[in-house]
Amino acid sequence: MDSQQTRPFRIVIAGAGLVGLTAAHILHHAHIDFVILEKRGDPAPKVGSVMTIWPQTSRIFQQLRLSEVLDPLMESLRTSMVISGDDSHTIDVSDFPSVLEKHHGWGLRILLRTQLVEALYTMLPEEAKSKVLLGKQVDSVYMDEFGVQVTCQDGHTEKGAILIGADGVRSRTRLCMEALRQHKSPHDLDERYQSPYRSTYRVLVSQVEPLPDAPSHIKCDGVNYGAATQYLHGKKVSCFAIYEKLAKPSSKHHRYTDDDKREMLKRWSHLMVMPNYPVQDLKLTGGNIGLYDCEEGFISDWYHGRIVLVGDAVRKLDPRTGMGYNEGVIDLVVLINGIRGTSGVLSPRKVGPTIASLGKTFQDYEKTRTKHVSTVMGISKTFARASAWLSWKDMVMARYLQPYLRLTDLCVAFILDPMIRASPLLNGTREIGQIGD
Ligand SMILES: Cc1cc2nc3c(=O)[nH]c(=O)nc-3n(C[C@H](O)[C@H](O)[C@H](O)COP(=O)(O)OP(=O)(O)OC[C@H]3O[C@@H](n4cnc5c(N)ncnc54)[C@H](O)[C@@H]3O)c2cc1C
What we know:
Blueprint: E1 10-14, H1 18-29, E2 33-38, E3 50-53, H2 55-63, H3 67-70, E4 75-76, E5 79-84, E6 90-94, H4 96-104, E7 109-112, H5 113-122, H6 126-129, E8 132-134, E9 138-143, E10 148-152, E11 157-160, E12 162-165, H7 172-182, H8 191-194, E13 198-208, E14 218-225, E15 227-233, E16 238-250, H9 258-267, E17 272-274, E18 277-278, E19 284-298, E20 303-304, E21 307-309, E22 315-316, H10 324-340, H11 355-385, E23 388-389, H12 392-404, H13 407-422, H14 429-432
Parallel strand pairs: 1-2, 1-12, 2-8, 5-14, 12-21, 14-23
Antiparallel strand pairs: 3-7, 4-7, 5-6, 9-10, 10-11, 13-16, 13-19, 14-15, 15-16, 17-18, 19-22, 20-21
Bound molecules: flavin-adenine dinucleotide.
């Protein structure tokens, strides 16, 4: 590849999931050229139930001027409740979502995943939308000192200065990157590169009709040994989930059938989702029940040469805390702020950024994000295990320590609140839009 091909600076992105589409907005506003290769044919598939959006992401939405469309779709949570999954007696009640709202202007807000994906896609200006190429499954990557060349399964190729892997849990970019580092073919990498995450639970999710008489703006966790429920209700949007411990933690990817879903619903029909309401009383709506393994973990090498990873490609969190996408957005903020500051990216010079200057940017990105990832991982794991208990210690934590020591409120005050406050904004806010304007 000759050096001319990397000018002007251009980014190739693998994957137009939630993180890839958010990257399109950020790069468009930052005037950085890009192309996204997405294997699906549909930019906004009708799958998934409800997403929780944390305040740090709401701030980025405001910077990107996405709030005017997203705000009316989102509903705030105010109360978080923990009940016994057996008999629905109340174990703990916290108003931490309202506290977050008071401190940060936004608390925890929920919206349908389909609405979020659709809004992210349709709100892209036409020029940016034309850079999202559908039906393009990334297959292989060639990299040299001047740039990357990405080849899809249908033979289509794209060139750029760097490749960002936003292609999710089973990231092909991650495999190609590791293969280049180890001078091997992706097929010859050992198992830990093929499946770096591990599942301890599976989750069944569905939209539901709001429960009559149940309060609105509430999140309720029904906790128990080996299985737990979660009910999220705004005013218009309600969804529920059942989390179930797997027979054995596994790194294998399972595809579940409709029979698996029916059996799981039957198995836990007696578990309580809200005081006086067991699973069997719920009316499932939306025609779309999901059943997935809850992979957890993160990888240690986030970049190699001109390839860098973001979102679920680099870190997977249990869904119960609703942080996965939110963390992916902050990956992008840190990474793209760094890229904008890298010599040779925004300047009109002929020679693009060198591997050495990109290496420094990617190293800073990895360092910043890995420092943070263990804290987030710790919160997510603890919360998951305090909900569907794996041992008597988890039971003691959920039933006694958490409510009596007010551990949820302490975690919010001493970990989450400062973390949200310190969460980065996109640089160049004058071009993108001032906070609060
Ligand atoms: C039940 C459940 C509930 C959740 N709730 C929340 C929540 O409330 N809040 C929250 O923040 N997070 C939540 N998450 C996590 C969140 O969904 C993920 O963290 C987020 O979707 C990650 O986005 P991503 O773009 O990195 O990956 P993905 O959304 O998986 O997108 C990856 C994209 O890459 C594409 N792709 C894959 N391979 C290739 C290839 N070879 N070539 C081209 N394209 C490719 C895929 O088709 C896909 O479009 C939840 C997850 C689950 C399972």
